């Protein structure tokens, strides 16, 4: 069975110049090796000729050798003879080479210490020809040999490959992981991670094969480092795989936190076979590079480096934002007070001060209606009224008319419920239920600072528990409070989901449009579009659902929801 990664659901905003440059260098070097270097057959012939002549020299000086295989005897013999390269008299070794092994004798023969016997001269010429071919072959010249110790080839070996298939496989993985790392961390940080992983992978190979003269080539160790860093930075990414088994093919998705660890464990297991000499693939280099990439990713992500120093295209002022994404609408949705923008945040606490609502009824008034983008829920077929009549619902948020009006920057009494909830949360920050209560009291008290600290996380917690009615109620209360409260793209996605679960297509479209305007490059936007199409279809508007699905396929063609959108489009015609 063939299982090949071909994409994922993470998008980028900047062209990955460094990743493309690395790929171009690898391709150019492989092209140079193909056009100007010796072929593998020429190298094999030159190596066998040098070995054959070296055996003849060792026979002349009387150094015992291991008997060759029968087929090797037939291949190495210049003509049928009982004793290949037999000479009239042996060559006498100098006193300092008496009893030396074959390698020292051949080194002395190449250095001219054994004279100019025709057999030695033939060996020297064959060896020089083989060395010249090795110098012209980038694999032999730039490949890292553990026997050579520390050298520049520790890094150069990551740019040459054994063949075009080897190169194509590595470039595929580099493109899948390198583009997003470069986009999120910047070129300098990505270059450090890539080159460090290449260096560590070569060292790991040397530790697995101490003293070996077999060259290590290929970017797979450095790319394994990029995969390890990708796992830390984009652990929830959905990796798209193409599979082939027998006469059947298809695609499927696996999260990165499942796919990459499974791959790493397979490489670790096969590295023991490599150490035993049963495999020629450098799995040890993959293991070393992956561990190095994970270490760098952990330090960058959780050590504060990414937040403080590294470029984030989502926050770069000079990065050109992509065009806004329409969601199959014909009229514009008014601006959302929850858009995350610095211009919406006042500079002083006094500017955020909002007078309290006169009574509880004023706080329960829904926000001003947006232009009618879909038929009202009452006119849509098979749509149940939601939420139930207000008479059946307890007043929410709790009345606060008894509390005297206060400025937002005033001190809340220590014995107040909000102060008690704050202290309880400081003692146990994992109590999301307390945070929910604090958020409700903050909305009732119109305390913008407390709303800012609790609203987004509370919405996410309610959504994770499938408390969609509470999500909707909290959103209504936030809108009615009139406080400009920035929400994250995850919170917007949860609001869209709650609108779908509450069978409210109009609200679903409005919130999704605001999310698209506020976060045009969010990786959660494809899921929001899918939810919008679902709500439109369930609300009796398959025409609008078809337009929304078309937008999803056009804007995010490689996302997993795009595949499902294509299937849905074929189903609805």
Number of strands: 3
The mean pLDDT is 77
Largest sheet: 3 strands, antiparallel
Helix content: 55-70%
Query: Order of helices and strands, N to C?
Result: EHHHHHHHHHHEEHHHHHHHHHHHHH
Radius of gyration over C-alpha positions, nearest whole angstrom: 35 Å
Q: Low-confidence spans: pLDDT under 50, at least 5 residues?
A: 70-83, 313-414
Between the first and last Cα atoms, what is the distance in angstroms? 34 Å
Shape: elongated
Beta strand %: under 5%
Structural class from helices and strands? mainly alpha
Strand order of the largest sheet: 1-2-3
**Secondary structure tally, helices:** 23
Question: Could you characterize what this model shows?
Answer:
By secondary structure, the protein is mainly alpha-helical. Helix content is 55%, strand content 4%. It has 23 helices and three strands. It has helices at residues 17-36, 40-61, 70-76, 102-110, 118-136, 138-142, 153-156, 164-185, 187-208, 220-233, 256-275, 283-302, 305-308, 360-363, 417-427, 432-445, 448-464, 468-481, 489-501, 505-518, 525-538, 542-555, 560-572, and strands at residues 2-8, 238-245, 248-255. It has a three-stranded antiparallel beta sheet. Strand 2 (238-245) and strand 3 form a beta hairpin. Helix 9 runs antiparallel to helix 12 and helix 20 (505-518) runs antiparallel to helix 21. The two termini are 34 Å apart. The relative contact order is 0.08. Residues 70-83 and 313-414 have low confidence and may be disordered.
